[in-house]
Design brief:
The protein has 1 helix and 13 strands. It has 126 residues and is mainly β. Strands 2-1-11-10-7-8 form a 6-stranded antiparallel beta sheet. A 5-stranded mixed beta sheet has the order 4-3-5-6-9, with no helix packed on it. It has a two-stranded antiparallel sheet with strand order 12-13. Strand 1 and strand 2 form a beta hairpin.
């Protein structure tokens, strides 16, 4: 199952599974993702889950800005509506979220740690 993860300086604050569609984001306490911040509109954005017409197990995820005052940004670009891809970074006001697609995450390769010639220094090739 896909989810939207609220992050702050690389630390996960809260995870919001995409169990229903649409998932509402905004300053109104009735939203699924409530953001108590005056730079966020009351009804700021929604995330929709759409099933493939031929293969019901395939899902597509879209985020749509609801004509918010400060806009919704995906990977640094202001959007009106955009398909979400695994690891996309969403900004709503000053708040950062990461889109995690569980299907794509399972396909990610584990990185190998390499030892440097410098003592106690390790790295990956990516």
């Amino acid at each position: 199952m896909a989810s939207i993860v609220h992050i702050h300086e690389g630390v996960v604050i809260k995870k919001f599974p995409l169990e229903k569609s649409p998932l509402r984001i905004g300053r109104n306490p009735d939203n699924d993702i409530f953001i108590d911040d005056k730079v966020v509109s009351m009804e700021h954005a929604i995330v929709e889950v759409l099933e493939d017409t031929d293969q019901k197990e395939i899902r597509y995820y879209y985020i749509e800005d609801l004509e918010s005052t400060n806009g919704t940004h995906v990977n640094g670009k202001k959007i009106t509506r955009q398909k979400l891809n695994h690891n996309d970074i969403i900004r709503v006001g000053w708040n950062m979220f990461k889109f995690i697609d569980a299907v794509e995450r399972k396909k990610e390769k584990t990185l190998k740690i390499h030892k440097s010639w410098i003592p106690r220094v390790y790295y990956t090739k990516e």
